[in-house]
Amino acid sequence: MAKCKKCPDCPPVGAPEYMTTYGDMMTLLVTFFVLLISFSSTQAAKFNSAAGSLKGALGVLSAQGTYIKQPSLPYTKVGKGYHDKEMKKIIQETKNMTEKSGINEMVKVTQSKDQIHYNISNPMMFDIGKAEIKDVGKPILDQVVKILSKTSYEVRIEGHTDNIPIHTKKYRNNWELSFARALSVTQYFISKGISAQRFQVIGYGEYRPIASNSTRAGRALNRRVEIFINLKSEVTKNAEGQSVLQSLINNKE
Q: What SS3 class is residue 233?
């Protein structure tokens, strides 16, 4: 009788055992990179959307499929380098304008990391004892409007006088006159479409001199309007209610 041959071992059913470990490793890597991408963005909407997709794909939670609207950010946050270049260009245009017109001693513009500062002598802007902006000063303010229209930075406008007392039917003292002049500059910006909520208006009268009031030249330096554009603070438009400044302007009108 012939001897029976031994049946060879059958191959194991299913995928090799190492595939389970390999599949787990690939899943963890995909999860890691998806989370890495989602955390690289500070926008909460994108993070939530990516997290929902990831959870749905892994079977942890079913994706809701709800559309999350992207929050609207101030436009200076995107492409800020471009706006910085634009501001520098406008500031240089202003300096060229003042030098060409021979008024560079009356209009000084400086820029630092935190702010842009305009120091404008009152004779450029106002007649003696008045707060109505003269036509000769408007081109300078229009240069400031170019910057304000491209950004959403906060703006502080200060009015200053010398120490010579004033008393007219309209203004009882230098304090009132300095505030009225600062407010006139603010109203001009608002008339050009800049939001009133961005402004702080201050009248210092004769109490913040930058030169001695004992000389004519010193008093001329002290009569000024200063504009500070705060490069570290932006204002988000609020649709609810009307700002105190806008109310003040409307009441004055």
A: strand
- Examine residue 64 and state whether it is found in any structural domain, yes or no: no
* DSSP three-state, residue 196: helix
Q: Give the pTM.
A: 0.61
Q: What percent of the chain has pLDDT over 70?
A: 68
What is the CB neighbour count within 10 angstroms for residue 241? 8
Residue with the larger pLDDT of the pair 161 and 76:
161
Q: Which domain holds residue 54?
A: 18-58
**What pLDDT was estimated at residue 112?**
87
Indicate whether 209 and 248 sit together in one domain.
yes
pLDDT in tens, 29-49: 888 888 777 666 555 556 566
Q: Exposed/middle/buried for 83, CB within 10 Å: 0-12, 13-18, 19+? A: middle
Count: domains in the chain = 2
For residue 132, the one-letter residue type is: E
Whole-angstrom Cα distance, residue 152 to residue 145?
Answer: 12
- Strands across the sheet containing 199-205: 107-111, 115-121, 224-234, 153-160, 199-205
Q: Report DSSP letters for 92-141, one per residue.
A: HHHHHHHHHHT-TTTEEEEE-SSEEEEEEEHHHH--TT--SPPGGGHHHH
Q: Give the integer Cα–Cα distance in Å for 98 and 92.
A: 10
> Does residue 9 lie within any of the structural domains?
no
Contact predicate 213/222, CB 8 Å:
yes
For residues 158 and 230, give the distance between their C-alpha atoms in angstroms, rounded to a whole number.
13
Taking CB atoms within 8 Å and a gap of at least 24, the contacts of 245-248 are 245/186, 245/196, 245/197, 245/199, 245/201, 246/190, 246/196, 246/197, 248/183
- Angle, helices 44-58 vs 18-39, to 10°: value is 170
